[in-house]
TrEMBL record:
Provenance organism: Musa balbisiana
Chain residue ranges for the region called Disordered: 43-62
A Pfam family it matches: HGSNAT_cat
Biased composition annotated in UniProt, kind: Basic and acidic residues: 51-62
Domain Heparan-alpha-glucosaminide N-acetyltransferase catalytic: 66-189
Transmembrane segments: 72-95, 107-125, 137-156, 214-236, 323-346, 358-377, 383-407, 427-447
InterPro entries for this protein: HGSNAT_cat
Key words, A-Z: Membrane, Transmembrane, Transmembrane helix
The keyword Membrane belongs to this UniProt entry's keyword annotation: yes
PANTHER family, per database record: LD22376P
Record-given protein name: Heparan-alpha-glucosaminide N-acetyltransferase catalytic domain-containing protein
Record bears the keyword Membrane: yes
Amino acid sequence: MEMYELINGEEATAAAEPDSKISVIAVAVAAADALLSPRKADIEAGGPDAPAEKEAPPANRSREPRLVSLDVFRGLTVALMIFVDDAGAFFPAITHSPWDGITLADFVMPFFLLIVGVALALTYKRVSNKAAATKKAVLRAMKLFIVGLIVQGGYFHGLHSLTYGVDILRVRWMGVLQRIAIAYLVAALCEIWLRNDDDDDDDVNSGYCLVRRYQFQLLVALILTTIYLLLLYGLYVPDWEYQIAVAGSKPKSFSVRCGVRGDTGPACNAVGMIDRQVLGIQHLYRRPVYERTKQCSINSPASGPLASDAPPWCRAPFDPEGLLSSVMAIVTCLIGLQFGHVIIHFKVLDHKERIVRWLIPSFWLLALAFSLDFFGIHMNKALYTLSYTLVTAGAAGVLFTGVYVLVDVCGYRKPTLAMEWLGRHALMIYILIGCNILPVFIQGFYWREPQNNVLKVIGIS
């Protein structure tokens, strides 16, 4: 019943156990949604799951209004995800970049991660029992990781297949939800354990005080970035092989020649090598983003038939949410955590302070990102490079500040109500639509033949 309690937060009531596979999925979806979208409580006073102090607040202390811009920003990110997924087939330029470079679709994941960090700072604003808070964070991350395995690990077989099930020997271990779960857990542990609680919240009145209070979290981000760079540019990548199954015959083998260090191309980068060695190549995503590069696809940047002179790595599995690249995803979440600290320590009446302390770091991140890209550390979503981390975090900071001014400062709520609703149900919508769970479910109802389903009638399938 704990998963149901996760759905309704502090207003949870008893419910019957799900007695069907669809009910299990629905509960898991709602649980994942509730994990990172705290609702109904005053989010600036700590989320509904924040361990509260036993002492009641003074009667004359008024609660600060809910920070609506969090939901609106999250909703904009969901809307962007839906747009690039649907329109990307017609406008390949906005879908994920085949390799180096950045497109509209490449902002979606970092935007989610940054706002997760912001929400975590508010959720764990007051922690009276660190052990209990740690246990809750670990359990929540595990639940989200398991949901990710179910919906992205190969259990569902796509829009045009009514079968399900996955060979454990070929399940995809990493994915979008798994990456969010890992980043959530590390950021939550940092917020629970790595902050200087000796200083009173009211004593933090400058950028220096803010850095001093959360210096160990910043140190973790710096250590993770250093480890990532050392592994990306220092690991030796040897030659490697892979096989592709061919119907009616033996698997076809391909050999990729590397023998280099510091290569950031599709074939010989350390990100892919670590995933192949640790996770196993059979557990990686089987439709690599680099199959749309000019070397591989004749329709680049769209997918298409392989070029006649395509290199052997074009069809090799590669996971865009792999292990090493997820290290920098954690850094994005930690940056979001620092944005959340501005909300905590600079109160709602001091809008100018909040805006300034968001915009200045955001523009610095953008400037540093473009400088790194100019000097050869290119923006690359698949590798989650340092320049990509900085440019997406900076862009998210600028956009979030704009949303905050529009919604929470100027009070324009009605134009953003749809985005606010999307934001409150962000992960549920991602799982149902982004992971094709809803279309797969609907296509399960058909007339005589599986092809005669509702989606075909309305022209979607």
